[in-house]
Amino acid sequence: MKLSMAAKKRREGYTFILPGFIYMMIVLGYPLIYNVVLAFRDVNVKTFKAGTDVFLGFGNFVKLFQDETFLLVFKNTFVFTIGCLVFQFTIGFIFAMFFSRKFTLAGPVRGLILVGYMMPMSVTAMLGKNIFDVSSGLINDLFMKIGLINAPVEWLLNGKTAMAAVIAVNCWVGIPFNMLLLTSGLTGISQDVYESAEVDGANPFQRFIYITLPLMKSAIASVLMLGFIYTFKAFDLQFVMTSGGPLNATDVLGTYSYMLSFTQYEFSLGSATAMVLFCCLFVIGLFYLRMISKEDD
User: Fold this and answer.
1) What is the pTM of this model?
2) Domain presence at residue 5
3) For the segment 28-45, what is each residue's pLDDT rounded down to a tens digit?
4) pLDDT digits (tens, 9 = 90+) for 215-237
5) Segment (H or E) for 151
């Protein structure tokens, strides 16, 4: 049977897509499916041999949510994510408003701020580890010189300050990302709207509340959703900077899953932790896609 031109084009498209699809299924699809299988079985260093493990159903998930350490890690993940979002969004918005104005050296300075976002996270984590070092760290040296502290603070060795230090370093990466996206949203607002409001007697605060925020609603929502997804799945920052310590004070779901799987060799519990992380991000992703579809409609 002779194929139509549209069918031939469609078949050619599938032919070009097929290699990439096969590659993605091997690299991403198989590990994801195998992780789901592990999460419902009892696989550890003793039962790793094929045929010796048993099916537990939701037993691993029940065990996790009855574990105080996992509940602490679960809470840490949300504390870290929300703390980062609050600071990096607020400061990023201020920078976006500032650099949306035209002034000398606005472009070069904005480019320098973006350096933090372009650096690999592992390098940023090492830099943060050195900055908050108890003996030779820049933060202790600076705070002692200006009189805020009298003795060096063990930032990364104290559970109460370690999370704050990790959040501060992550914000250094997240602020340029927020600034970049929010600046794009600000440039889409016509200056005629501001000029009309100014003629009508609106002060800068009123213009910000009644013009900027409503017209930036979609951009703000996108920045917050993407920031939540990128921050919630954090791993390398905590792994390099604190290794999840002290006493799981900075552990998040990503680092805890790695520790269970490759330190304690509890592969099924590690996979179950990864599944909890995946489900949280999946729900947020669905919410984000629904929000985008409503805007398109």
Assistant:
1) 0.87
2) no
3) 888 889 999 999 998 888
4) 888 888 888 988 998 899 999 99
5) none
Q: Domain limits at 186?
A: 74-296
Does 291 reside within a domain?
Answer: yes
The total number of structural domains that make up the chain = 1
Res. 295 pLDDT band, cuts 50 70 90:
low
Query: How far apart, in whole angstroms, are the C-alpha atoms of residue 69 and residue 277?
Result: 16
CATH number at residue 258: 1.10.3720.10
Closest CA to 36 of 261, 283, 271, 269: 271
Yes or no: say if 137 and 161 are a contact pair by the CB < 8 Å rule. Answer: no
Return the DSSP state at 25: I
Phi-psi category of residue 43: left, alpha or beta, with phi > 0 → left and psi -120 to 50 → alpha? beta
Average pLDDT, the chain: 87
Quick one: tokens of 115? 């350096």
With tokens 């010796």, the residue in question is 52
Q: Which helix (H) or strand (E) holds 187?
A: helix 159-187
Residue 80: band (very low, low, confident or very high) from pLDDT cuts 50, 70, 90: very high
Residue 21 lies in a domain: no
Q: Is residue 218 part of a domain?
A: yes
